[in-house]
UniProtKB/TrEMBL annotation, chains A, B, C, D:
Its cofactor is FAD. The lineage of its organism: Bacteria, Bacillati, Actinomycetota, Actinomycetes, Micrococcales. This is Acyl-CoA dehydrogenase family protein. The keyword Flavoprotein applies. It comes from Agromyces archimandritae. Residues 130-211 form the Acyl-CoA oxidase/dehydrogenase middle domain. GO terms for molecular function: acyl-CoA dehydrogenase activity; flavin adenine dinucleotide binding.
Length: 403, 403, 403, 403
């Protein structure tokens, strides 16, 4: 399965990206009190994306007509894992969240004009984008139906009002994709619409940053406010009141590409740990040969293999045009937890250095923690997985899961 | 992937096998003080195998010329899982351990004459067989090099001496495949040879049974003694002193088929638990809708999916003729533990009935426990997985694992 | 804390009880198709109780005036653990379930006449008893309010009707303590009354056995039917309609004594595993010195210590006359799971012999499994622990837990 | 057990310390490129210690003649837990690591003159101190015998050479307690001596900081270099060549006080999580009432109770003058892992806010991670616990553990 692009990405990451990552101690996002994005962060992104473009490896998941390599989901699994081997790999290949998911959404749900206007510059890396769904309490978080942001009908378009937070990449974004309620009340299962809002639209303000444990996503996470922000009719993505359905287009694949990238980083963590335990001794032996270290090493190998296998199974369903909702939900839950365990074990294997900045491991440890919460928390996914299992049982469809 | 044979097996198991399993409370093996096998156990096997043959589903994994359906390893994964959905399914399809592994070994390592003599009746279910490797301490257990049974060169053949225990199906076996030392000393990595010994050979005695938690394997487990038992030269399987290599032929595939069968039973356990929690109420709700039950249900769905995915990945390697040693070792370790967790959760979900004989769950709970020990304990596999990871790191081959 | 009685019990168990346990392969209860109890089981109990009485160690938890040693709860913790070191120890000391809990209940909730009539012979081991609470679905299981058995008022007493199952020791019981509804409907939080019913009362029938994984409790578990069984007024234990409150008297202490006994058995399992791994070799070392074995050994030491510490903390509360409800609920949940893990690890450390009858471990493994379900399942306890934590938070009483 | 000082500490922490902690976002240590300690960090410590002194709660563990309250170890357990309820509590009470452990060491191992010179100002908070044991590889880390720092005999004293890293509080320390080899070679079990070195001694240099995940310890962690640093004979703590023995005086109690403080923080994390889930809704219910949240809440209650119980059991041994080595090793291993689990669950319960700086949880999550590594990693403790269990088995002393 190690297709040729995978090996090219692997070499590129090792030779070009990792030296930059080490130079920067793995920090992409820098807190910044000024407007927009910290100049060093902006320059770093440009440096990485230039390198990816020069290597001919940018946006490999896109069809050839959009400048990509036209990879299947199964091929993406290998390529994205290879890119994720460095925290900076996905940025260099222009396949980082949330841009990669947004490109996927535009490709499959946007009109030709919308694609030309927004997908073209995104694919070229000329702009970056944000996806605005999560809201401060009591708005939508794990439960999408709690959506409170509103869009009111006005001549020629809509006026958006409400708050969104934890919005990644909102600063200096060219495009913000926003979910707002065009009918119904918070708690209703329908009534949402998706809007394409230029990042510099009037009535859209980045209020402040929401500082988090991670620093690997461009622009960090922000609190946005919409104050009667006008969006013309051609800014509606998909159909009015069908925003939750449109979100589904993005959901399962975006979950999986998250898994692919983080799996790459987990593999790196294991390699850093192996480098440590093969180089050091204690209690009369090489650390790598002590049984309690072997336990950690083996558990990680098992977690890596199971994560990879679950991702591939879901990718095969996507490639076959089958429903991958349950499979991607299972994969997301398992991989998010496995990646957390893996990086935690690697930190442990590296001892004091594992919690220091001598190695990149403590940075990775911080980066992967939110993954068990973002994109549906483990608890929300478990609840949904259990309900589907019960329903399948009641409808006599349990064996379908063993396809 | 649900090939047509899979659905036929599924129907056959549901309609024909499960009623027998329920009638017999899931007990195949009956302790017996007489010689040979308990008559009721013998009759039960015949009943099941007749049904499998009548359904045209016997030995589906064998090539067509040996009476099978010529399934690939990947196809076997689905079919064996469907068979394993009942404890009695594998017996009915003549794909139970150890016969299935022995047939595989004969198919790939035996001479045409040996195949005709032993594989033919095994494939037809006319005889059953045993595989004699494990020895009482200090002989071979987890560590194969500890092998102590000896074969001495005599004119025209060899004379075997030594003890083997935990030998499944030795009672009334037509064939016992035995590993004995033809050179070297206990502790040496080589010097083993594999012998095909008729079950009624002089000098081969079933000393006594070793009673264990499980009762799902035909004939139970025995302690065997070889007292200068003569085996002619044509009873050597493969080459002299190459027995460990010959054992490898059997090892990885047999591990995987174990995983496939037990995965089927784990799926059944989840279904029995779902039937329980959807039918009962407590604390003002249906049990299936209580959060703490949902946690168990979801965890099991995840374990089932990850087990299936790991098995398939290893099967694809086998089908591609690639080395599946590490993949099958990882799959075995994960699946054995996952199956244990799954059945344990199902017991818990069923409450008092889970530990009673009202349901089959407590029987399953006993049956799957040894799987974490047989076929290489979890600890032995972890040790080996860790060593390979360290070696791959040292040789710069870590990314090969992400094929 | 190793008070003198603890050491006497320890010696008694080692010298007198364990030889009997090994002789009988740890099986106390024998399935029996005849009426009453299997003669061998009856004889075995008598043999053990005679030995305990001869050693002057019977019912040590009772006050001196009832023939005991007047131990505090904290002292019981050590003595019961020492007794539990053999499956047969609690029977020998007449502190096995359910008699021990029933004696406690009678001591604290019965009238002087009731105590004289029932506690006297129970303390002397002349009779044994049962506790009838659990019912077949949809009756009371985890959720006590589901109680369906009814007692109707008749002149001079009550008439009981209903079914109870998983009733331990009901066969040949001298006394059956039964919970039945004297007012209200299934689902109501009150309205239960506790009755003392002679085991040979008219209208009380042992319908059949409910066979379970365990065989360590005298008389096994039965399904009982009450068909208008008459109980005179002096057979009411405590007050009418206050049966749930009376049950509380038994609940917390009985949970704890369960924990104490099973903790003893868990310690034995670790000792059997240590005996195995210190006597055998593999991979060039003693098994006890391999890292993956050390992990199991250490994890068990930690589980043993934490279990013991939790039991003692709850016992101290009982001795201080404080509410031990939450503490005993936490202890029960932790210890039941810890004991399960411990015995499972011991089985794993003993390899093939662990799942065989060569050692007592596979017997122990079966015996301890129901403990996570009986006496409130882990899920029910967690639900209750969480609710109390939330309530304490709301009422600003969280720090009280850190007493 | 909630002695009066515990309640005073609890009130003090809630009213005085937590407001400061919240104001400073839980950050005590600030990276600083200048010499010494960041002025804001120094001022913050002074503010906190002044408040603790004003409240009459400083150094409560010390004997009255040293300005403390003369608490027993068991009383300390409650008081230190109450102090640890805020990250800044231990600093305010002058019971933070490493000063608290150093004071204990001086109290029990120093000469009267040494105590007067060093313990007096430490107890008064006039100076702070460091403990220099860990060395860069291949020096001492988990394995103390690897000690490489050397002290050479010179007239009137010793000259120290070598490097130490991860030395907490070395910047501006009044006193650095250092372990160096006075005889033997790295790998030898003896030959170490403990020295009391003024922080401003010639030949002692703070080379650079070792940045780590945590920021709660004053002065952070540094790399120190000793270049022939002279220490007069009266700077030897305890006896020459007996440094490992002297270190034991500090080891078990310091491990336990770590546990006490971190347990306090874990309780706080649970309270922050409870505040979150009782205030927010989702899926039609209060989060606190969802089953999957209840699981986390209950698991944390169990972990808190078991941690507390293990700490107390070890404290009782210390108070009784008994060997608490194994008990404190078990407590440390369990508590460090339990605290990690607890804070991780609290983060998860708080969702997106859990990984943000909106709450203190993400800070706590970083702070507690190193505890599984510092003070003996979980792996080193497990290895040692297992070896002691095996030895106790061989010497027939296993039941002593059940004291």
């Amino acid at each position: 399965m190690a297709t040729e692009p995978t090996e090219r990405v692997r070499d590129f990451v090792r030779e070009t990206v990792i030296p930059v990552e080490e130079r920067e101690h793995g920090e992409l996002h820098r807190p910044y009190d000024g407007p927009g994005i910290h100049p060093r962060e902006r320059a770093l992104r440009a440096e990485l994306q230039d390198a990816g473009r020069d290597a001919g490896l940018a946006t490999p998941q896109l069809p050839v007509e959009w400048g990509g390599l036209g990879l299947t989901a199964l091929e993406q699994a290998a390529v994205f894992e290879a890119a994720g081997y460095s925290l900076f790999g996905p940025i260099a290949l222009n396949i980082a969240a949330p841009d990669e998911g947004n490109m996927h959404l535009l490709l499959h749900a946007a009109s030709p004009e919308q694609r030309e206007r927004w997908l073209r510059p995104l694919a070229a890396g000329r702009i970056h984008s944000a996806f605005g769904m999560t809201e401060p309490p009591p708005g939508t978080g794990s439960d999408p139906r709690a959506l409170t942001a509103r869009a009111e009908r006005v001549p020629g378009g809509w006026r958006l009002s409400g708050e969104k937070w934890f919005i990644t990449g909102a600063r200096e974004a060219g495009l913000v994709i926003v979910l707002a309620r065009t009918s119904g009340e918070p708690g209703d299962a329908g009534g949402a619409t998706m809007f394409l809002v230029p990042g510099d639209a009037d009535g859209l303000t980045v209020e402040r940053d929401v500082h988090t444990l991670d620093a690997g996503l461009y622009g960090g996470h922000s609190l946005l406010r919409f104050d009667g922000c006008f969006v013309p009719d051609d800014g509606v993505l998909g159909d009015v009141d069908e925003g939750f359905r449109a979100a589904q287009v993005r959901l399962a694949p975006a979950r999986l590409t998250h898994c692919m990238r983080w799996l790459g980083l987990a593999g790196r963590a294991q390699d850093l740990a192996l480098a440590h335990v093969t180089a050091r001794r204690g209690f009369g032996a090489r650390l790598a040969d002590l049984g309690l270290a072997q336990q950690h090493i083996a558990d990680t190998e098992i977690d890596l293999a199971a994560s990879r296998a679950l991702i591939r199974d879901a990718a095969r369903l996507l490639d076959a045009g089958q429903d991958a909702g349950t499979a991607s939900s299972i994969a997301k839950t398992f991989v998010a937890e496995a990646v957390g365990r893996i990086v935690d074990r690697s930190v442990q294997l590296a001892g004091g250095q594992g919690v220091s900045e001598e190695l990149l491991l403590s940075r990775y440890w911080r980066e992967v923690r939110p993954f068990r919460i973002y994109d549906g928390s483990s608890e929300t996914h478990r609840w949904s997985i259990a309900r589907r299992a019960v329903r399948a049982h009641e409808e006599g469809r349990r064996h379908d899961l063993a396809r």
